[in-house]
Design brief:
Strand order of the largest sheet: 1-2-23-19-22-21-20-11-12
Distance between the termini: 37 Å
Bound molecules: flavin-adenine dinucleotide
Largest sheet: 9 strands, mixed
Number of helices: 18
CATH architecture of the largest domain: 3-Layer(bba) Sandwich
CATH topology of the largest domain: FAD/NAD(P)-binding domain
Number of strands: 24
Number of domains: 3
Structural class: alpha/beta
Helix content: 25-40%
Length: about 550
């Protein structure tokens, strides 16, 4: 399917009943028993046939068009757009970007429902720390950060408004994402013990020259025996070894791993599990003096707000609907064969420099005679599939007692990661129609099922998750748009940090450069943006 093309379906009452979840929950909640006759459900946003074109073997058709570029970037995700920006800043005007999808942004693309903007993937960016220099510089250029009286100040309009987060726990909403625990209980003690353990690794792992033990981007962290040891085991093994076995703590840490890495503490390394906290504000147990909420930038369309601004200066030099099939590095230039999806013809591009801002498993398929590090790195990285559901809602939902509707709303114990409200940042005085974006990090074994033509079982799963917290959701949901990410993000499994293959790709010097969040072994804006900026600088 092409982008914008959709595979429709409709979620009937029987789909819900088939899951054994629907009517009983709706009726039992004491709200209106009516459920919608059919909720239109469709897949949106990604062109699998384009991506799968790379798997086909056989001769390519003759080249129909020859093009040249001063520099060529392949992939218009955050990394590719940051690379193009960096090349332009260095005076190369003739920078062209080839992107498989019709829209730029990659995993940070946006969508619209009923005139309301919503994300298809990434939806927030924490305030950058001191090591994320390139990100800070970009945010200054975009006016999101300013220097005032010797301090860096963020534009409040783009910071997540309060209330930021809540968790649905035992029938009520609680502020924040930590399940509420009794002061002095074993759960409370374990939360404090984890906070102390994070602070201890932050102290013990700092570098001799003052590098922080854990930094964002990751390659600017110190690296010593402590980090190597943490990277050699899973987060779950490390937690077990530290006696951190409380169910509430483990749920919360599992939620964090799934949210940032799309994987469980049993899969990610202890280095990655701790990096989530230690590279930012640490972890603060409830009631601690330093308990604070991390400030994040967010927009209705998610991080598409950023990628649209990165893409805008490219104008006609951004070529959407170009599936790059082959990249061959020659002595004097790099040759790139790209399939023009609209014209259905093959283009040959030549350029003295090419930045490959593609996931590494795709780069390994398109590069001819790839450097050994590329094949090795591509074989190392497991990828998590994700499902993102945008639900158009016609009126505020019935809410359970406790904390008020927030930007991020998470169901304790759920399979999903909760939802964000696309209208949260609006200043309208009375809540009304909105789009809720629900996130589900899936097991790798579920990837094949994501390719199903029928989207309704997935929509049913999303609704089932939310029905406990919002029993009238079936009455108010108007349409559901589902985005499937087959290879959403690399999972930082043990052994990835400082792996020689990834290091080699970062440092490669020649006509081909690599830039993608994959180089960090995990996927966040800071990693992608820095990888792109560094490739341009190189
Ligand atoms: C559901 C989801 C939620 C996320 N939430 C957040 C969040 O809130 N905050 C955050 O910081 N990060 C988040 N992330 C991580 C996100 O991946 C990164 O922030 C960032 O967008 C990655 O950018 P990238 O350029 O490295 O990769 P990508 O986004 O993967 O970009 C690669 C680009 O290459 C293109 N491409 C692929 N093959 C070809 C080809 N053959 N020819 C031409 N082009 C091709 C792709 O279409 C894509 O545009 C999320 C990711 C997902 C999937």
């Amino acid at each position: 399917m092409g982008p914008g093309e959709v595979k429709p379906g409709s979620l009937r009452r029987r789909d819900v009943l088939g899951l054994g979840l629907g009517a009983a929950t709706v009726l039992g909640a004491g709200c209106s028993p009516a459920a919608p006759a059919a909720v239109p459900v469709q897949w949106v946003g990604a062109s699998h046939t384009r991506g799968h074109r790379l798997r086909r073997s056989g001769a390519l058709p003759p080249v129909a068009v020859q093009r040249q570029a001063g520099a060529l970037v392949i992939g218009a995700g955050v990394a590719g757009l940051a690379a193009a920006r960096g090349l332009r800043q260095r005076g190369i005007d003739d920078v062209h970007v080839l992107e498989l999808e019709d829209q730029p942004g990659g995993n940070s693309r946006g969508h619209q429902m009923a005139g309301m903007a919503c994300p298809l993937g990434a939806h927030y960016l924490p305030l950058p720390g001191p090591q994320a220099r390139e990100v800070s510089e970009l945010l200054h250029e975009l006016g999101l950060l300013k220097h005032e009286l010797g301090r860096t100040v963020a534009d409040e309009r783009h910071l997540c408004h309060s209330p930021q987060e809540r968790v649905f726990f035992e029938g009520a909403w609680a502020e924040g994402l930590l399940p509420p625990v009794e002061p002095g209980s074993r759960s409370a003690q374990q939360l404090q013990a984890f906070a102390a353990a994070v602070a201890a690794v932050q102290r013990a792992g700092a570098g001799r020259r003052g590098e922080p033990a854990f930094a964002q981007p990751a390659h600017r962290s110190a690296w010593g025996p402590l980090q190597a040891q943490l990277d050699a085991q899973t987060f779950a093994q490390w937690l077990d070894a530290h006696g951190l076995d409380d169910a509430h703590l483990r749920w919360y840490l599992g939620y964090c791993c799934r949210d940032d890495y799309g994987a469980t503490p049993e899969e990610v390394s202890a280095w990655a599990g701790l990096h989530y906290f230690a590279s930012r504000h640490g972890f603060h147990a409830p009631g601690s003096e330093t308990e604070e909420r991390e400030a994040v930038f967010t927009w209705p369309e998610g991080n598409a707000w950023l990628t649209q601004r990165l893409a805008a200066p490219l104008g006609e030099r951004l070529h959407g609907g170009r599936t790059v099939l082959q990249v061959s590095e020659g002595r004097h230039a790099v040759e790139v064969l790209a399939w023009d999806e609209a014209q259905q013809r093959l283009e040959r591009w030549t350029s003295p420099q090419v930045v490959l801002a593609l996931p590494l498993f795709i780069a390994a398929r398109v590069v001819q005679n790839p450097p050994p590090a590329l094949a090795q790195a591509a074989a190392l990285l497991p990828y998590a599939p994700w499902l993102v559901a945008n639900l158009q809602i016609d009126a505020p939902l019935f809410d359970r007692p406790g904390a008020p509707p927030s930007w991020d709303n998470v169901v304790y114990g759920g399979r999903g990661l909760g939802y964000v409200d696309a209208m949260h940042q609006s200043l309208r005085p009375v809540p009304g129609a909105t789009v809720l974006t629900a996130y589900h990090a899936l097991a790798r074994s579920e990837r094949a099922a994501l390719l199903a033509d029928d989207p309704t079982p997935w929509a049913a799963r999303v609704l089932a998750e939310l029905r406990g917290a919002h029993p009238d959701i079936d009455e108010h949901v108007q349409r559901i748009h589902l985005m499937r990410w087959g290879h959403a993000m690399a999972i930082p499994v043990p052994g990835l940090q400082r792996h020689p293959a990834l290091q080699a790709l970062r440092g490669l010097r020649g006509r081909l450069r690599f830039a993608h969040a994959d180089l960090a072994g995990c996927s966040v804006f800071e990693e992608a943006c820095t990888a792109g900026a560094e490739a341009a600088l190189a």
